[in-house]
Amino acid sequence: MMDDLTDSFAGAGDMGADGSPERLHGALAHRLAVDILKNIHPPGTILPSEIESSGTLNISRSAYREAIRILAAKGMVESRPKAGTRVTQRSRWNILDPDVLGWMFETEPSEDFIKGLFELRLINEPAGAGLAALRRTDAQIKDMADGLERMAKYSLATEAGRKGDIDFHHALITATHNEALVSLSTSIGAAITWSTRFKQRRNALPRDPMPDHIKVFDAIVAQDIGLARWCMESLVRMALDDTQRSMD
Known about the structure:
Elements: H1 2-9, H2 21-37, H3 50-57, H4 61-73, E1 77-80, E2 84-87, H5 98-106, H6 111-135, H7 138-154, H8 159-174, H9 179-182, H10 185-199, H11 210-221, H12 225-247
Antiparallel strand pairs: 1-2
């Protein structure tokens, strides 16, 4: 692992490719996190020391410390004086952090993890769609429509299309006018983004998801609370089926 890290960072000094130290310690945090998720550094193990790592990787000790701070803020490691930096138990990780979700999908996430994410969506999004049908404003309807238009124009095979999808879901959650639900919007959006990329990593999507999204939208426009909930639950369940098939 250390040889791979050396190849990635040798000669970089304190700067990343764009000349910023943030780029470097962010890249190092990313690489360490992926290695933790791949069980190269299992929970309970001590990471290489600051002095050892900074010398081997040809980076400053401050850059290494910043990388560790990033991982500590996400619950993945803890540092103690004289004890070093230890990888924490998975139960302490901030799984819903958008960065952590992205790192997890760079590995091969387990089917249980995938199911857990979709269970989270099934708990929140159908109820959110029902509240959005009750409370949405004309401006929020416009925002949802704009997201759907971009999703249809560019498709989920492109970054622009996926951005339209995320914007649709974000506008929908915002339309609930529920502060607690809105606080989950970034995490739900990250889960949608990474699972969408994941399920088409080898093959194109098996079906067009647009009709499912349009049904949700139409129900919200019509202020049909029950139908909005049902359509959103159907959308999420079919997305789970697509993702599971991609794993097979």
